[in-house]
Write a structure and sequence with these properties.
Elements: H1 8-21, E1 25-31, E2 36-41, H2 46-50, H3 55-64, E3 67-72, H4 77-85, E4 92-97, E5 103-108, H5 114-118, H6 123-136, E6 138-142
Parallel strand pairs: 2-3, 5-6
Antiparallel strand pairs: 1-2, 4-5
Length: 143
């Protein structure tokens, strides 16, 4: 997470998240456009963070007045994209570099899962774009 600075608000959200879920938050991204907060947690910790029948997420939504998304961290750009698009199944991920060094990630999902990968109002693909831009300076395109 080198180079990423957290605001006081993000740190407060992370502290509340950890108190409610008993899971360490690795990062917190405030998505004003979609009125949500995205928390990044360690690999294998999403289930515990969500809680039984989504109890932790429901409580956090109530306390924060915003939607809450939980994404598992990954050590690679491809892994982060897969985690951000979950539960959609990813067929392939291709990282391209445009002129000027700009990275573009082309993600292919099965046709029947395209709606799931995009999400209602584009929320899921926007989550993947936010995280890819924050960690890798890359844009995500769905194929």
């Amino acid at each position: 997470m080198a180079g990423i600075k957290l605001t006081e608000t993000e740190m407060q959200y992370m502290s509340l998240f950890e108190a409610v879920t008993q899971v360490e938050a690795r990062d917190c991204v405030i998505d004003e456009e979609n009125n949500r907060i995205i928390f990044l947690v360690g690999q294998g910790m999403a289930g515990k963070a969500i809680g039984s029948n989504g109890a932790n997420v429901k409580l956090l939504r109530k306390l924060l007045g915003k939607d809450v998304d939980i994404v598992e961290e990954a050590s690679t750009l491809e892994g982060l994209i897969q985690a951000a698009l979950f539960p959609a199944r990813v067929k392939s991920i291709e990282v391209l570099e445009r002129d000027g060094g700009e990275k573009v990630v082309v993600v292919e999902v099965p046709t029947e899962q395209k709606g799931l990968a995009i999400g209602r109002g584009g929320r899921t693909i926007k989550r993947a774009r936010l995280l890819a831009k924050r960690y890798y300076g890359a844009d995500v395109v769905l194929k």
